[in-house]
Amino acid sequence: MNINLDPSRDDLPLMANTSHILVKHYVLDLDVNFESQIIEGTIVLFFDSGNKFRKKSSSTEETCRPESNEACKFRMLEPCHISVTNTRTFSSKMGYNDFAICGKGEKDTSGKDGNHDNWKLASEISSSKYCCDTGNHGSEDFLLVLDCCDLSVLKVEEVDVAAVPGIEKFTRSPKLTVVSELRNQIVRELVTLPADRWREQLDCYARCSQAPGCGELLFDTDTWSLQIRKTGAQTAPDFPHAIRILYRTKPQGRSVTWTSDQSGRPCVYTMGSPINNRALFPCQEPPVAMSTWQATVRAAASFVVLMSGENSAKPTQLQEGYSSWHYYVTMPMPASTLTIAVGSWTEMKPETYSSNDLAAERRSFSPSEADFRCVGVCGHVEYPCRFQNASAATQEIIPHRVFAPVCLKHTCQETLLRLIPPCLSAAHSVLGTHPFSRLDVLIVPANFPSLGMASPHIVFLSQSTLTGRSHLCGTRLCHEIAHSWFGLAIGARDWTEEWLSEGFATHLEDVFWAKAQQLAPSEAQEQQELRAVLRWRRLQDEVRNSPEEMQVLSCLSETSSLGPRSTAVAVATEAFILPPFDYSQVFGIHNQTGGKAAIQESSPL
Ligand SMILES: [Zn+2]
Fold first, then answer.
1. Which ipTM did the prediction report?
2. The domain 352-601: what is its CATH number?
3. pLDDT tens track for 436-457
């Protein structure tokens, strides 16, 4: 399974087998060490092997023929839900034709009702069970495959959640005497707690994650995956539903970048890697495996830890000059959206006015259309959704913070700080409820390869956006804010269709920015048309004058042929058929994000 990928051409292989078992929650507990450039600690995964899976797997079991070990390994692969960009190259490299890759034209179209849930999707991917003969007593153990790359896995163990004091209340069926069944039953109850008990659920996940281990599990790693099994656990429902992995990252791992900030101090951050977070933590990458997470991250006390969590974490001082930071999310998201940045950044505060004053001033500009929208009914899995929360719906400006190296303090105060409230407010006046409850903006190191990147609750901005007048900073900020809706709350299921969210965000940056500047309608239209002409010229120039591999806008050039590019289009067309500027209806289908939802920008326009 050592696949050589050409990052410019191939998509990532999706190794995780999500048909029978899905990660519902990750608990990360990590130490960041700048001397060794290693992040080390544990991750506890909580699984659900839902009822639908159990029924399905029993009737369609498939076992390995006595072939070579390698063949056996390949059979354990899931048919990919996400297509591989260059299928032919990819499969011939692997030299194994049983590896089922969904071609672009054969993907499921379950998105057409705009209301698909994880289980349905997952069971549509594959209904057959892939087993591997372990060679141990002729048994066929269920093999859990996680996406993982460049991690040193030190130990994998089952977690004895039954040992957590007070956990008994999570077992509806006290008759269970087999202790492994009891443990799995506890996790099943825990992962299916109703959304209004999210705090209790988070707390239980945290306590369970610290429960003692109750047996090491067998594991193996290769270039793209971590494979785990428990002797005698032949089906996903039998497999431990809470496992702890001890691991450390490698300095050369490509999920995070170790570098220096503009003040020359060390920092590390996820900068939208082509391999997503696989070199940061083992995960289920296919977007059907949407999950929540919580993380405790420790670093020397001089560092600030920022994450894509929904809480604005404050440090807890530990002994010996270390601090710990705790973040969490309650909205299930693909593992690729988890974002972290650790550095000696300073929170930027306004110098002469409070941002609230400006916000209040701006708030008067127009009665918001959003006020008339009713609080919607959502079709996604249950979680504490802001679209169903009346007070969230009227919040024009969400709490926000700005972090940057101290040497950029003046520049941030001059431009960025005063732009955030009007841009957030403008976004709310056009689209209504902010999908995320807060926003951190981080000015990232100079080697950041693009102008901005949006993740849940956090936006990375290049310092280039701070130069000149407020125009570049304002439009870029509007663009990244728009990605909270398009690209994060909803998105193409297939990340080769990223241009869809780019298209919406690029369009909306003009709409938001015109509102934020309080332009008259005629001025706004003039500005928008001018920018559209510039973009069109630039695209034409690029297509005419640059070789294909150099075309940074090439994804946008596909907008003219919406034809046969499959399911993602099916999801997105629901948005496309809306009347102009009525974005409210898409909210019913939010949170169906596909794949790499941390959106990277490279267009300077
Ligand atoms: Zn919702």
1. 0.87
2. 3.30.2010.30
3. 999 999 999 998 988 999 999 9
